[in-house]
Amino acid sequence: MITEKQEKITDKKMKKKVLIVDDHPIIREGLAFLIDEEDDLIVCGAAEDIPNAIKAIHDLEPDLVTVDISLQDASGLDLIKEIKTKYSNLAILALSVHPESIYAERAIKAGARGYITKQEATRNVIIAIREVLDGGLYLSKKMNEKLLSLLLFEDNPKESLSSVNRLTDRELEVFNLLGHGKGTRQIAEQLYISVKTVETYRLRIKEKLKIDTSNELLQHAFQWVNEHEKDYVDLKTAK
Fold first, then answer.
1. pLDDT tens digit string along 81-96?
2. Long-range pairs for 139-145: beta carbons < 8 A, 24 or more residues apart
């Protein structure tokens, strides 16, 4: 005879395991609550940085990992790339406060199978998780159309990438931080790189954006952030 305890253990094993990687406790708790409400899903653990995320993946063997793009002192894109290198078959759903127009394409190229903003997560995160677990790709209709357009018209000058989109992931990260008012030393400390390296990135960014002076670079960065992150919510201030 199967006892009630054994039934619970069996049921737990049948559920798909989700690992949450986010450096904000409220987001981790909120996601865990939504996921654990589902009969077919269960949160097996959480991590707030790259080293702990990799360790949790090894120890807990999740079926899917949700990855915050803006981890404290690191980029979620780096984590996505590392996961795909070490665990190529592991499903990844990128989660971010940043609008998908900025990072969705980069997240998919890094190895994620979906991208969802935290603003819409409460409505669609379960749909997104199931879509990715089923081997599909989860993006908004608008982003799907954009990516399809890029594939169809990649040789068309009218559909060429904007200058900002030509920046590497790290260059965009530096550019984004400049747009949020961070100085060179602050950026170096946040990204764990040298001041000289940040200065090199700034030079590369100016070259790619065809900008001559540092003041122009800052103005361009401020304007870009204002235009692309109107819906940005600085959740870090809630800590």
1. 999 999 999 999 999 8
2. 139/100, 139/104, 139/108, 139/114, 139/115, 140/100, 143/100, 143/101, 143/104, 143/105, 143/115
